[in-house]
Amino acid sequence: MDIKPLRYFIAIAKTESFTQAAQQLGVAQPAVSMAIKKLETDLGLTLIHRADRNIGLTDEGKKLLLHAEKIIQATDDALLEMSELKGLSQGEVRVGIPSMLGSYYFPPILMAFRHRYPTIMLKVIEGGTWQLQKMLENGELDLSVIVAETLPDSLQTQALIREEMLVTVAEDHPFSQLERVSPDAFFDEELAMFKEGYFHRRIVDKLAKACNRTPNIGFETNLIPLIKSITQQGFGISTLLAMVIEEDDKLITRSFDPPIWLDLGIAWRKDSYLSKANRAFLDFVSEHGRDNG
């Protein structure tokens, strides 16, 4: 079977459009339509519903999609490995990094990596941990930083850093007089939180569920400077990693009671070929994590 039609088929499934799939692939739309028609003829099955402008997969198409994605991923891995056997000097690393770490922990690591490996291209995707995990599982990322609390069997991880989630308040907030803050006291306050899908928010939601409390979220934003500003001015409190707090932030941090620790790791797909560029990045980041642990 020619795998090119499978690439076309996957693009159509994701975009739900022949036109957008063709644009994404950089080919003419008639070529996409002809390839899919031939694929259906060869298989003797209808794979795509073509009702007016609504494009969708048939039940047979949905089953083929599962196999097609695995075939394309395996083919791309094989081609990459064969290229590297020829002594490929350049490479690309597609890594997902959660916002908090992307802003405060990783910039010096990324710059140092580029200094050591100037021919390797770095593509950094910033987002929520669960969004990044799904992108990793789907082959859209090579590596991703994740919170290693629940790891699917399809992923393998290497420990990176251990960080404490700290209650963060203004300097004149009553919590500044405490050594630790109980979850109940925390949830009595109005909160400035990250949006759903980010580990910062997931930890708070998980804690609230365990305490049978409903968080009073007054501000929801992924902008760390805005969370800091809201907290500084006393319009709410938050919880941030210690690495995020700087001396001139005019913020006070306290541990939860009991303390909440996050184990952060860097993950990759077990069944995929990890390129030399990705292995170099993985080793570099792990080495840096040990040096700063």
TrEMBL record:
The residues forming the signal peptide are: none
Which domain of life, per UniProt? Bacteria
Note whether Cell wall biogenesis/degradation occurs among the keywords: no
CDD domains, sorted: PBP2_LTTR_substrate (cd05466)
This entry's Gene Ontology molecular function terms read: DNA binding; DNA-binding transcription factor activity
Task: State the similarity comment.
Answer: Belongs to the LysR transcriptional regulatory family.
Under what name is this protein listed? LysR family transcriptional regulator
Q: What is the lineage of its organism?
A: Bacteria, Pseudomonadati, Pseudomonadota, Gammaproteobacteria, Oceanospirillales
